[in-house]
Amino acid sequence: MASAAVQQVIALASQVSDHERRQVVDAIEPQESIADLADLWQAEIERRAARVRSGASTGSPAAEVFARVEAKLKQR
Length: 76
Prior knowledge:
Elements: H1 4-13, H2 18-28, H3 31-54, H4 62-75
């Protein structure tokens, strides 16, 4: 169970706009974790690009990808 202070913060956060909530999160999020996340995404992008360049991953036509996503969304 969250402390009273945490519950109060959550209640207050629910009263502000999405933009303002993002500002709060950005203000309290440790900058090291943001940098770590950026590094992880960069490594993932490089890994995926290398697979495409080597021919190990050929991708799919956008129309097929969108059709699969639409079908999954309709199942919800």
